[in-house]
Amino acid sequence: MLLALLPSTARAQDPGELQAQVARAAQAFVDAFNNLDWVRFEDSWAEDATTFMPMPDFPARLSGRDTIVATFKSIFADFPDRFEGPPYLNIDPVDLRIDVVGTAAIVTFHLGDEPPRNRRTLVFVKQGDVWRIAHLHASRPPV
User: Fold this and answer.
1) How much is the pLDDT for 2?
2) Maximum distance among all alpha carbons in the chain?
3) CA-based, 20 to 30 A from 114: which of 8, 48, 71, 142?
4) Coil, strand, or helix at residue 76?
């Protein structure tokens, strides 16, 4: 019954291929972020994306690709001067899980080796042939 609600194009595609497409989109986002490649980073986001940041300086939801990208640029503005690179960051997802549901996908993973590990959730939406981030939720569990 649920399949009847999905667009026919979502039903027709191989689930493994959809998962691979999302994995490539997630890796492209991580690579762009690690390298502070702002053009590729910006292209990873849907125009109406939202995010929750893990830092107390950003307690409210950030809305819109332009706002999100500008916020990340401000946070990491001095990294090219402070660190050798690229890459400037070392984001290395651990325990990656990808769940595809029609034209949306949920990507969850942890960051870091030692508990408590930071948690990330990326919600992707398929826009044409491109998977873009509709929402990022970043959190740090209590110590």
Assistant:
1) 46
2) 55
3) 71
4) coil
Nearest Cα neighbor of 30 from 42, 22, 41, 18 is 41
Alpha-carbon distance of 27 to 134, in angstroms, equals: 16
Residue with tokens 């690179």: 85
The C-alpha atoms of residue 36 and residue 114 are separated, in whole angstroms, by 25
- At residue 114, the pLDDT reads 80
CA atoms within 13 A on the CB side of 136: 21
Instruction: Tell me how far apart the alpha carbons of residues 27 and 55 are, in angstroms, rounded to a whole number.
Output: 23
Q: Tokens 């050798």 appear where?
A: 84
Q: Which residue has the tokens 């640029």?
A: 73
Q: DSSP letter for 117, please.
A: P
Residue with tokens 């929402």: 135
Cα–Cα dist 69/62, whole Å: 10
> How much is the pTM?
0.87
Phi/psi of residue 6, each to 5°? Answer: -80, 145
